[in-house]
Write a structure and sequence with these properties.
Elements: H1 7-44, E1 48-53, E2 58-61, H2 63-68, H3 73-76, H4 81-84, H5 96-103, E3 107-112, E4 118-127, E5 133-142, H6 158-170, H7 175-205, E6 209-214, E7 220-223, H8 225-231, H9 235-238, H10 250-261, E8 267-274, E9 280-292, E10 295-304, H11 306-328, E11 332-337, E12 340-344, H12 346-352, H13 371-388, E13 391-398, E14 404-413, E15 423-429, H14 431-496, H15 501-522, H16 527-530, H17 534-544, H18 549-556, H19 560-574, H20 583-587
Antiparallel strand pairs: 1-2, 1-5, 3-4, 4-5, 6-7, 6-10, 8-9, 9-10, 11-12, 11-15, 13-14, 14-15
C-alpha cells in the first residue's frame, strides 16, 4: 500500500498548488494583455491581415479584412480565403500566400480585381517551433485610391475571451485538472511567443507609419520602420520624442487625442505633421487605444497624403475651370440623367427661356411641343448615342413664353456602357437658320418654276426660229429658181434677137441686176439645183408637174430628142443616171 502523506506534506502541496495557480493567473493576464495589444494594433490597420493555415483556411483576420466582405470574424474562421474574397472554388493563380508556404520566403504580387481596383498583396510564411511551415500571413493593401479602412477597431476577440474564461474557471477544479491546465498553459505560452514574433514582423512590415505613445505623458513607446522613415529620425531619437514634437497643430491634436480616449473619434481625415527637417506635410490618421502594463496607450496608423492633397487641389482647379468654361460658353450645355435635367449652363437656360435652375430635377418632356416629338428624340437620339458613342439630331422645343423653336442637339454619354449614368447634351437654337432655309427653299421652288417656264418658252422659240429659217431658205430657193426659170431664159431669147445697142445694154443691166438680187441666196441653195442650167431647171419643173417628154417638147417648142438630152443631163447632175430611180419622185423632194 502507498504511504499516506502527512499533514505537513499535504499543506506543502496545497501551498505549491496555490503558488502555481497564482503564477498561472498572472501569466494569463499578461497573455491576455499582450494578445489584446497585438490584436488592437492589427485591428487599427487599414491593410487586410489574414492568418491562414497550410490549406488556406482562415485562422484569424483583422477588422479591415472582415469589413471588406461585411462578415464578422467568427464566420470567417475555418473558411477558405479564396471562397470569401475572390469568390472562387480554387486558389487564385500565382497566389503569393501559396508561394510563400512553398518557398519559405516572403512573396509579393500586384493584382487587379474585377471591380477595377489594384491590390498589393504580400504573403509571409509562418514557422512552428520545429521550423516547419504551419501557415502564412497575407497582407493586402488597396493601392488604387490609397485609403485605409476607416471604421472603429474591434477591442477583443470574443472567442478567445470565452476560451480564457473557461480555462480560468477550470483552475478551481481538482489537482489533476489543475496540473493538466498548467501543462496547457505552457503550450499556450509557446503559441503566444510564436504569435508575438509574427505580430512583431507584421508591425515592422506595414507600409503605413504606426506609432504607440503614452496617453498621459504623450511619450512615444514604439514605432515601426515606416514611421521612422516618414519623420526622418532613427528609432532611438524617435522614442525620446513626444507627440508634440511631430504635430504642427498642437491644440487640434490635443483635442483629437482627448476625443479618441473618450471613444468619440477613430479617424482624423487631415492633420498636418512636421518632420525632423521642419517640413510640414498632411497626414491621414486612424486611431485606437488599449491598456499596456496598467497604462493607457494610443495607437496611430499614419499615412502621408501629400500626393493625394495635391491631386485633390488639381482636380478642384480643373472643376473650377470647367465651371467657368460652361458659364462662358455661348452653346447650351446640360447634363441629362434618365431624361431628367440634372445640370444646365446659362446659355441652355437662355434657350429654354427659364431662370437658372428652374428646370433642374424636371423631365425634359416639358421642353417638347408634344409627346410624339419627345418619344422620337428618346428613340432616335439615344439609340445613335448607344451605337456610335455620340448622337446628333434636330428637334423642336417650346420656350417658357410658348414660342416653338428649332434646335440642333449633340450628345455624348458619361459612360458609353451605361447611359443611365447620364448624357452631356449640347444645344443650339437654329430657328433663324431654319427660317432662312425655308425662305431659300421657297425661292428655289419659284426659280425652278420660272426656269421651267423659260425652258418651255425657249423650246417654242427655237421651233419658231427653225421654222422661220426653213421658210426663209425655201423662199430664197424659190426666188433664185424662179428667176432662173421664169426670167433668165427669156432674157437669153431676147439677147438672141436683133436689137439696138441701147436695148442690148438695158438687157445686160437687167441681167446683172437680177444676178445681184439673187446672189445672196445662191450660197444657201442646194448645190445640185445650182448646177442646173435655166433650160434644165425649166425641164425639171415640168417633169415635177407630171408632163411627159413629148408634152414638155411641145410646151418648150423644142425637139423631143433635145428634151431627152436635158433629162439625161439632169439625171447625171443629180447622181441618178443609170439607176431605176423615178426622176419625178426624186425631184419632188426639192423645192423649185
Amino acid at each position: 500500500m502507498d504511504k499516506k502523506p502527512t499533514y505537513l506534506e499535504l499543506e506543502q502541496q496545497v501551498k505549491e498548488l496555490k503558488k502555481a495557480v497564482l503564477e498561472r493567473k498572472t501569466g494569463e493576464k499578461a497573455l491576455k494583455n499582450a494578445k489584446q495589444e497585438k490584436e488592437t494594433i492589427l485591428d487599427s490597420l487599414v491593410e487586410h491581415v489574414i492568418h491562414q493555415d497550410t490549406e488556406m483556411r482562415v485562422l484569424w483576420a483583422n477588422r479591415a479584412a472582415c469589413e471588406s466582405v461585411n462578415l464578422p470574424r467568427d464566420q470567417l474562421l475555418g473558411c477558405f480565403c479564396y471562397e470569401i474574397w475572390p469568390r472562387r472554388t480554387d486558389p487564385c493563380p500565382n497566389c503569393p500566400v501559396m508561394k510563400a508556404m512553398k518557398t519559405g520566403r516572403p512573396e509579393v504580387m500586384e493584382k487587379y480585381t474585377p471591380d477595377g481596383r489594384a491590390w498589393f498583396i504580400r504573403g509571409y510564411p509562418v514557422q512552428g517551433a520545429t521550423g516547419k511551415i504551419v501557415g502564412a500571413i497575407e497582407l493586402a493593401l488597396d493601392i488604387t485610391k490609397g485609403k485605409q479602412a476607416e471604421k472603429a477597431l474591434r477591442n477583443t476577440h470574443n472567442k478567445l475571451e470565452r476560451r480564457v474564461k473557461e480555462r480560468t474557471a477550470e483552475l478551481v477544479e481538482a489537482n489533476k485538472e489543475l496540473k493538466r491546465q498548467i501543462q496547457e498553459r505552457k503550450r499556450t505560452e509557446e503559441t503566444l511567443q510564436e504569435s508575438e514574433e509574427n505580430y512583431r514582423n507584421l508591425f515592422q512590415t506595414i507600409t503605413d507609419a504606426i506609432i504607440l505613445f503614452d496617453a498621459q505623458t504623450r511619450q512615444f513607446i514604439d514605432a515601426n520602420a515606416a514611421a521612422v522613415r516618414l519623420y526622418g529620425y532613427n528609432l532611438k531619437e524617435f522614442l525620446k520624442l513626444t507627440h508634440q514634437n511631430i504635430t504642427s497643430e498642437p491644440q487640434s491634436s490635443d483635442t483629437t487625442i482627448r476625443q479618441t480616449l473618450e471613444g468619440k473619434l477613430a479617424r482624423i481625415p487631415v492633420r498636418y505633421h512636421k518632420k525632423k527637417d521642419g517640413t510640414i506635410f498632411p497626414v491621414e490618421i486612424s486611431t485606437g487605444t488599449f491598456t499596456l502594463k496598467n497604462r493607457k496607450v494610443l495607437c496611430g496608423v499614419i499615412r502621408d497624403i501629400t500626393e493625394r492633397k495635391r491631386s485633390e487641389e488639381e482636380l478642384l482647379e480643373r472643376e473650377q475651370i470647367l465651371k467657368a468654361t460652361l458659364a462662358a460658353s455661348p452653346v447650351g450645355i446640360g447634363f441629362i440623367r434618365n431624361r431628367i435635367i440634372d445640370q444646365a449652363n446659362k446659355a441652355m437656360n437662355r434657350i429654354w427661356g427659364y431662370e437658372d435652375g428652374f428646370l433642374l430635377g424636371k423631365s425634359t418632356q416639358v421642353l417638347y411641343p408634344d409627346i410624339e416629338e419627345y418619344e422620337r428624340v428618346g428613340r432616335e437620339f439615344y439609340s445613335e448615342i448607344k451605337e456610335k458613342g455620340i448622337g446628333s439630331m434636330e428637334t423642336r422645343w417650346v420656350t417658357q413664353d410658348g414660342r416653338e423653336i428649332h434646335c440642333y442637339l449633340q450628345g455624348s454619354p458619361l459612360d458609353p456602357s451605361d447611359l443611365s449614368k447620364g448624357v452631356i447634351v449640347a444645344a443650339m437654337d437654329i430657328t433663324e437658320r431654319k427660317q432662312v432655309e425655308k425662305a431659300l427653299k421657297q425661292r428655289g421652288l419659284d426659280l425652278e418654276m420660272k426656269t421651267i417656264s423659260l425652258k418651255e418658252a425657249n423650246t417654242a422659240l427655237k421651233v419658231l426660229l427653225k421654222q422661220r429659217e426653213e421658210d426663209k431658205i425655201e423662199l430664197e430657193e424659190k426666188v433664185v429658181l424662179n428667176v432662173r426659170e421664169l426670167i433668165l431664159p427669156y432674157l437669153e431669147k431676147l439677147k438672141m434677137k436683133k436689137m439696138g445697142e441701147t436695148q442690148t445694154h438695158y438687157i445686160n443691166i437687167i441681167e446683172s441686176n437680177l444676178n445681184d438680187i439673187v446672189s445672196p441666196f445662191v450660197h444657201e441653195l442646194s448645190s445640185k439645183l445650182i448646177k442646173l442650167s435655166p433650160t434644165e431647171l425649166q425641164v425639171t419643173n415640168l417633169i415635177k408637174q407630171g408632163n411627159t417628154t413629148k408634152e414638155i417638147a411641145k410646151i418648150m417648142n423644142l425637139a423631143k430628142s433635145t428634151i431627152d438630152f436635158h433629162r439625161n443631163n439632169i439625171r447625171r447632175k443629180f447622181g441618178i443616171k443609170n439607176q431605176k430611180t423615178n426622176i419625178r419622185t426624186y425631184l419632188s423632194s426639192f423645192s423649185l
